[in-house]
Each structure stands twice: as structure tokens, then as C-alpha cells.
Design brief:
305 residues; 10 strands; UDP-N-acetylmuramoyl-L-alanine:D-glutamate ligase; 10-stranded mixed β-sheet
Amino acid sequence: MNRHTVRSPIRGASSATAESLNKILYYQPSDYQPRGALAPASVPVVLAVCGADPSGGAGIQADIETLASMGCHTAPIITALTAQNTRESMGYQPTDPALIERQLALLSAELHIAACKIGMIASAEIATAVHQVLAAHPEIPVVLDPVLAAGSGGALSNDATRAALIRELIPLATLVTPNSEEARQLVPHAKTLDECATALLALGAEYVLITGTHERTPAVVNALYGEGRLIESWSWERLPGSYHGSGCTLAAAIAGLLAGGASPEDAVREAQEYTWESLRQSYVISQRGQRIPNRLFWAQQNRFR
């Protein structure tokens, strides 16, 4: 049976799900504490395969802050250096794919990798390198955030990279997290977002979460699909303004929760709570640019505004 959860304007979930959600949430409205802080001797390691954003709003910095909030240690693999700020993207330089393959092989040989989050891929050759290592470790949950453009709109991929992502990485994914625009680019023949999700599942992804931040709707509707059907959808208050790195935050939070032992469905539910709160408490570093999610809101007494 499909479920639809309505997000209330402050923090609570709908009455139908509030009790169950409160049992799994990392933070409560008045006092948020990461689970990892309770067990410092056991810190899950999460691979973060993504680009570097010099503004610090998206990419690897977003992943590290989010995964730390989930009580995880981040092992970063930088796929590209980008030239961007919170308003525009002017280009990127991919990393040597052979180096990335060696990095992944060394880390997977030494560390117990509890999950992997993949963001910007930067080239078809990098997608192949990541596939070759992760395919040998099917036990690692993989969250794929198919970054095709920067939050400011500049391209961070090309047709060959997109084709390789579809061919090499989606079949490895526990969860794919496209926004609605990315979903349509990945499945251009689909007429609806439901059809996009069905096609991505058919490519081999176990779950697909399509987010609605780019849709012109009063509320943001996110929908989770699996086993060929819609599993659950959520309606969130649409916050004013635009945000740099919100997709990175959501995907990394899901990966961190999977690394901590949550089921995919529970991880998706809780990661949305965390991400929405980080957006609600976002801050500005430029009066003309996008806002930055405050991923460390739980650790700060003085809120940025």
C-alpha cells in the first residue's frame, strides 16, 4: 500500500507517522545529538566519491559535514576540481581515473567500508573506475546522487558521462536520488516522474528517491520507489530562497544512516528530516548567491541567519 506523509510547517510529522519517526530521528526539536557521539569507539566509514566545490557549499565539504552529523568517518575520493561559487559554475577538471581506481582499491583493502555515497562523476572513465572497484564489493550500500549540473545551473557532466553513469553505476546503486530535472535527463523518453522511477529501477537500482525541489508546486513532494512501485511520498513545506548543496546533503545523510544500520526506507525518512532542518537553519556567505545548508545546526548554540 502506498503511503503519503504530510510534513508539518514546524518539525513534527503527520499524526499517522509522528510516533514512529520520533523513534528514529537523530535529533529532537530541542536537543539534537548524533548517534555516533554515543559510541565513539565504533565509527562507520563512508566513502564519498564526489567533486570539490571551492565555495564549500556542495561537494566534498557538504558530504563531510553531513556524514560527521550522522556519526560517520568520511573517506573522500575527489573526482574533479570545479570552478564555481554559489551563483555560477565556470568549468571543472576531472581527476585521473587511474588514480581514483588506486585510491578506491587501497581504501577497500584496508578499511571496512560501511557505505558509499557517489556524487559528481566528472568523466565516463571515472564512472568505469568506480564501477570496477565497487562491483567487487556488492555488500557495500551505494547511494548515487546523479549530479549533472551545479546548483547554480552550470553543467558538471556531458553526454558520455551521463551514459556511463547509467551503464556503470545505476546497476550498483542501493538508492538513486535524482531531483526531478535529473530524473528527466536520465530517462528522456519518460512522460512522467513515475515512469522515470520505473525505468531507473529497471536499470538495476534497488530504490529511487525523486525529489521535488525543482517543481513548481506549493510544497516539495519527494517520492520513494522500490520493487516496481511507489513506496511512500512526503510533502514538505517549501522554504524561501535557493540552497547550494541540498542534494549532496540529502544523499550523504542517507548514506550515513545506512552505514549506521538503518534500513533504506528508514534512512530516507530520517535524512529528509535532517536535510529540511539544515535548510531551515541555512545561512548566507554572499548577499547575491544561494544559501548554505547549516549541516551542523545541532552543534551550534548561536544560529546563523
